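Subject: Predicted fold for Tubulin polymerization-promoting protein family member 3, 172 residues

User T.R. writes:
Posting the sequence so we have a shared reference for the thread.
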Amino acid sequence: MEQLLTSFKRFAVHGDTKATGKELNGKNWAKLCKDCKIIDGKNVSGTDVDIVFSKVKQKTSRVITYEEFQRALEELAPKRFKGESKEEALESIFKLVEGREPTNAGVTKVAKAPALDRLTDASRYTGSHKERFDGSGRGKGREGREELVEKTGYVGAYKNAGTYDNKMKTEK
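User M.O. replies:
I've generated the structure tokens; pasting them so everyone works from the same file.
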């Protein structure tokens, strides 16, 4: 049962930076069912999974708790494992989910083409772009991008900046 909770938490936080791992939203519930092969295309479909989700959650809620998640699995178990007894089916469905985590199938891969390397090689930059990177090719961030204004009260190219106080002392 420990592994079941672990899986529940992993799917609960998947794709949501603010998620606590205590509740599972409908999207991640559907993902869990798909990734753990509960949806088999024959006995259990995506629609069945959505219906069960709506059935176990509270009326006003948009998420399910771990207890509701277990009830949802109980609902789906006899459907997914038709020939087995209720306990066996439940056991089997728990086995499908235990220790699993969200797969990232179809996630966009970073293109690594020779052209990309050539275009992002900072040592070949010229003009104003050259100033934005240090020798190793790392960006300088804000310093390289903006004309940073000195708030000293002096004109930019003034050579005697900061000498006003000294000048006033000598005249006394």
